Amino acid sequence: MPDYNLDRLRNIIGEINAAYSKLEKIKELSKEEFLDSPEKIDSAKYNLIVVMEGACDICNHVAVKAGGQAPTSYADCFSILEELKLLSTELSTKLKLMAKFRNLLVHRYWKIDNDRVYDIIKQDIPAVSEYVKIVDSYIRQERQNK
Description:
Blueprint (H helix, E strand, L loop, with lengths): L5 H22 L3 H5 L2 H30 L6 H10 L5 H19 L6 H11 L1 H20 L1
Helix pairs in contact: 1-3, 3-4, 3-5, 3-6, 3-7, 4-5
């Protein structure tokens, strides 16, 4: 079994889950309520960054430990997990798009379309929860096979 830093992975998953739960609350808002609240928009952007940073950190750790490959980008990382058969093509594609959106949030925040932020929260963010469950299950299985 690869030598995973389980404490680190658990901490990252905790941070993802905390940010994810905040996004779930924002998800309950109508688009109009969301777009009329600069505070909700800012919170959504920040928590999307936290969720995707965590997802990418986990991905990098698993890609290096399980696949022996250092990703060249956040999006590339999910391709590696797809090659390792940990992620389906569909889930990998969603996560790659979200990783690219994370880059846009971090580096070009003034060009962000807030409608798109809302749509990602409503439609795409559940992919991160699915991803965390897959990685957690994979690591548990690897530990049992040890």
